[in-house]
UniProtKB/TrEMBL annotation:
<dbReference type="InterPro" id="IPR002328">
    <property type="entry name" value="ADH_Zn_CS"/>
</dbReference>
<dbReference type="InterPro" id="IPR013149">
    <property type="entry name" value="ADH-like_C"/>
</dbReference>
<dbReference type="Pfam" id="PF00107">
    <property type="entry name" value="ADH_zinc_N"/>
</dbReference>
<dbReference type="GO" id="GO:0008270">
    <property type="term" value="F:zinc ion binding"/>
</dbReference>
<dbReference type="InterPro" id="IPR011032">
    <property type="entry name" value="GroES-like_sf"/>
</dbReference>
<dbReference type="InterPro" id="IPR036291">
    <property type="entry name" value="NAD(P)-bd_dom_sf"/>
</dbReference>
<keyword id="KW-0479">Metal-binding</keyword>
<protein>
    <submittedName>
        <fullName>Threonine dehydrogenase and related Zn-dependent dehydrogenases</fullName>
    </submittedName>
</protein>
<comment type="similarity">
    <text>Belongs to the zinc-containing alcohol dehydrogenase family.</text>
</comment>
<keyword id="KW-0862">Zinc</keyword>
<feature type="domain" description="Alcohol dehydrogenase-like C-terminal">
    <location>
        <begin position="188"/>
        <end position="265"/>
    </location>
</feature>
<keyword id="KW-0560">Oxidoreductase</keyword>
<dbReference type="Pfam" id="PF08240">
    <property type="entry name" value="ADH_N"/>
</dbReference>
<dbReference type="GO" id="GO:0016491">
    <property type="term" value="F:oxidoreductase activity"/>
</dbReference>
<feature type="domain" description="Alcohol dehydrogenase-like N-terminal">
    <location>
        <begin position="25"/>
        <end position="144"/>
    </location>
</feature>
<dbReference type="InterPro" id="IPR013154">
    <property type="entry name" value="ADH-like_N"/>
</dbReference>
């Protein structure tokens, strides 16, 4: 089969790889119909995530048709068109039972934090992902969800990560009616978080980024106020100034490990890899939120220590909430929002690129060329 093949930082290509096989009676083999490139994949692509091994196939956002089933799978049948959440969850461990599917204790049993994730290095279990023609899906009775009749597959593929992560970012913010919410990052997740902030009652939504076309997209899609931090002398001072010196009620870090805006953070976290990423956006969130406010983190950071102003967290009485989105828990509500027209995920998709051109797709997305917001890879069988 054709599959994306990681060859080292900034080097990916399409290759022929062996077909995946049923390795456990709860597995399924899925023929991929859509697979996205995520901003989190760029952390892998750029060499920022430990134990990303040469030969791995990325891709944690995908839909596909069930082609084979293990003998213990009961809830799916051959031919079902499913969306597959990025979390690999067993459904039975203590954390899955609490709805913390992103922290499954069985799918990534060697880790003490994150559960298994498709195509996201051996720190997340070493599972190959969906930027391929076929993929093995463990625990197939747990998270894979049959796409509702009439739903556009382009909407469905964004329900595997972007929509639930943006929604949970807003949910974790504990937004109250009339709150001012600031989202750092105008990538697909940040834009979705800004859009979802209104669903929880926000009275004002502000997005901070440094890419003009993404800011303009956010203004139209969210809709929201959007500012280029390069035009602001200090984003923290700006946010304080526009909130009567109090600060925002809720700040969301939707950037993570590769944030721009601080030379020191860039050198330590992106160049020398001496910490778990550049925490510039997290600094701004902590310092911009009001006393007693909430900082919600969905941006991805590495597992090693990161330089953040913990003293300000304590002295301001800030609540920090963070996690990988528990997609399975959120899907019923989000499917309803899509079907009713409250959310329009597919509007984020700007590029549909053949799987065979995966290296070009990564280059375009990474370099922010051609006003790219969200690229989707199309396997050959999905184009016929």
């Amino acid at each position: 089969m054709l599959a994306m093949n990681y060859r080292g930082p900034l080097r990916v290509r399409i290759d022929h790889k062996p077909m995946p096989e049923i390795l456990h009676p709860q597995d399924a083999i899925v023929r991929v119909t859509r697979s996205c490139i995520c901003g989190s994949d760029l952390h892998l692509y750029n060499g920022s995530v430990p134990d990303t091994r040469v030969g791995m196939t990325f891709g944690h956002e995908f839909t596909g048709v069930v082609e084979q089933l293990g003998e213990e799978v009961e809830k799916l049948k051959i031919g079902d068109h499913v969306l597959v959440p990025f979390n690999i969850a067993c459904g039975t461990c203590v954390f899955c039972q609490q709805g913390l599917y992103g922290n499954c204790h069985e799918s990534n049993s060697q880790a003490t934090a994150v559960g298994g994730i498709f195509g996201y290095s051996h720190t997340a279990g070493g599972y190959n992902g969906g930027q391929a023609e076929y993929v093995r899906v463990p625990y197939a009775d747990v998270s894979p969800t049959v796409i509702p009749e009439g739903m556009d597959p382009d909407d469905a593929v964004l329900l595997t990560d972007v929509v639930p992560t943006g929604y949970q970012a807003a949910e974790m913010g504990g937004i109250q009616p009339g709150d001012t919410v600031v989202v750092f990052g105008a990538g697909p997740v940040g834009i979705m978080a800004a859009r979802c902030a209104w669903l929880f009652g926000a009275g004002r939504v502000i997005v901070i980024d440094c890419v003009d076309y993404r800011l303009e997209f956010a203004r139209e899609y969210a809709p929201c106020e959007a500012y280029d931090f390069r035009s602001l002398e200090d984003p923290v001072v700006f946010i304080k100034g526009t909130t009567e010196s109090l600060g925002a009620d809720v700040c969301i870090d939707a950037v993570g490990a590769e944030a721009a805006g601080s030379a020191l953070q860039t050198v330590l976290g992106r160049k020398l890899l001496m910490q778990g990423g550049s925490a510039t956006a997290l600094h701004w969130a902590i310092n911009s939120v009001k006393k007693g406010g909430i900082v919600s983190i969905v941006g991805v950071y590495g597992p090693i220590g990161t330089h953040i102003p913990i003293g300000n967290v304590v002295n301001k009485g800030i609540t920090i909430r963070a996690n990988q989105a528990s997609v399975k828990r959120l899907l019923p509500r989000l499917i309803e929002h899509v079907q009713s027209g409250v959310l329009d995920p597919k509007a984020l998709i700007t590029h549909r690129i053949p799987l065979e051109d995966v290296s070009d797709a990564y280059r375009i997305f990474s370099a922010k060329l051609d006003d790219c917001i969200k690229p989707v890879l199309m396997p050959p069988s999905a184009r016929t």
